[in-house]
Amino acid sequence: MKSFHFLVFLALALAFSFASAFDPSPLQDFCVAIPEPKNAVFVNGKFCKNPNLTVAEDFFFWGLNVPGNTENRVGSNVTLVNVDRLPGLNTLGISLARLDFAPNGGLNPPHTHPRGTEILVVVEGTLYVGFVTSNPNRLITKVLYPGDVFVFPIGLIHFQFNIAKTNAVAFAGLSSQNPGVITIADAIFGSNPPINPDVLAKAFQLDKDEVEKLQKLFENA
Fold first, then answer.
1. To the nearest 5 percent, what fractions of the chain are helix, strand and coil?
2. At what angle do helices 208-218 and 197-204 cross, to 10 degrees?
3. What are the backbone angles phi and psi of residue 107, rounded to the nearest 5°?
4. Which InterPro entries does the UniProt record give (predicted)?
């Protein structure tokens, strides 16, 4: 009987190990199965280059010393270095970003990264940052100064806001080669096609005409 229990345990352990090995975390929004491999266009991530053909440029990116343009409606700019801009990141599970903020209210609006945890370090300026937990939606915030580090857990809504009269600069590491980003206001009010205004009016307890004004504001954002 003991040997049977051991075999069951061993089978479960092997099944779990195979599931872990062959069911990796998604590297894009979705990857729909198809019956015929000849019709495949995408893989979970990127196709791999022949290792014998790799060159130094595959692992190199320049330009993070250059400030991003913050002359926009939110007063911030994110320069993301993910697998699309640095091919050598493929399968490595990391990416990097530079964040620039205009003085007096430059904002990286509330957003989520569906596939990555973010760790941020401030190198210049003063940022008010925070994230909201899953239900019951507790807000956790902190004011950061140069040299301070803050972590935003994967999938949680978070933001960074410049509360100083000077520019602010931060760098962030993310735990995915393609962490993705969903900016909450843009996704809700600027989706294509638009979400039914009746849905949003009820969800946000707004008049329908107010929702339609917001949708018009965000449709070309």
1. 25, 25, 45
2. 110
3. -130, 130
4. Cupin_1, Germin, Germin_Mn-BS, RmlC-like_jellyroll, RmlC_Cupin_sf
Grade residue 194 by pLDDT with cuts at 50, 70 and 90. Answer: very high
Retrieve residue 88's tokens.
Answer: 């050598």
CB atoms within 10 A of CB 60: 10
Longest Cα–Cα distance in the chain: 73
Q: Which two tokens stand for residue 165?
A: 């009269």
Beta bridge partners of 157: 132
Predicted pLDDT at 27: 79
Per DSSP, what are the bridge partners of residue 43? 45
For the record, the structure tokens of 102 come out as 């205009």
Instruction: For residue 106, give Cα distances in angstroms to 63, 129, 150, 163, 214.
Output: 21, 12, 18, 8, 21
Alpha carbon 211 to its chain's center: 26
State pLDDT tens for residues 53-111: 889 999 999 999 999 999 999 999 999 999 999 999 988 889 999 999 999 999 999 99
Residue count (the chain)? 221
pTM of the model as a whole: 0.85
Supply 138's token pair.
């507790």
Nearest to 80 by CA among 58, 64, 66: 64
> Nearest Cα to 148, choosing from 132, 167, 128?
128
